[in-house]
Amino acid sequence: PASWWADLLSYSFFGMIVLLALFVAINGKAKLSQGFSGKKIDRWSGMDVLVHWVGAIACLLLIITGLIMVAGRFWLEPNMGASHWTGFIGTSVALHDLMAFPFILGWAVMVVKWASKQLPEACDIGWLKVVGGYLNFGPFKGKHPDAGFANAGEKLWFWCFALFGALMVGSGLVLMFPSLVATKDGANLALILHLVSAFVLGAFTVVHIYMATVISEGGMECMLSGKCDENWAKQHHNLWYKSLSKGK
Hints:
Elements: H1 2-27, E1 40-42, H2 46-75, H3 82-114, H4 123-129, H5 152-176, H6 184-215, H7 222-225, E2 227-229, H8 230-236, H9 238-245
Antiparallel strand pairs: 1-2
Helix pairs in contact: 1-2, 1-6, 2-3, 3-5, 5-6, 8-9
């Protein structure tokens, strides 16, 4: 039922925000043990940063407008006049359709350009065992596991984004252009795949944003300037930093 999907998507998205806020309040941030060095290292190119933000902004707008389209008539419409709701939902649908294209562009370029940096490595198991060293209690406190250019958590996010992004793009195109499928069953399947992909990507997007902006000290700078602090690289991506120091 439509109301079931509306509740599932809404609670998963906003529930994840609340859970991570509680986590930060209890656990605290993952601070740099040596503080900021002030020395910057190139991590992402200008094109990488541009493509990331094209896809990221489009993704956020798609999540917001998608929630309005799925849950708005249950949560918002009862508190809005008919004329206001008609204009509001119409604008949301138009913006959702428009943002699909920069999202597709960003998704395709990021997947093709970055996939080689997201392949499994032996150090990934050790990273997962200590949850990346982000927990500030018990045997996990103070752990700084080995990681290459991307750690295991970033790789999980990337491949989730690649897979469910593909499902999102394919199903979304079918919903925008119904003539791409021959039967109603095909259209219904596309809708289900679109909603499932939205559920997964929406929750993972919240985690991704929290990790970059709140939990990991110094992490956000990577996608603002394309550079990172030397101590950040040593603590979170030590194997990559060592390869740089060896001139590789």
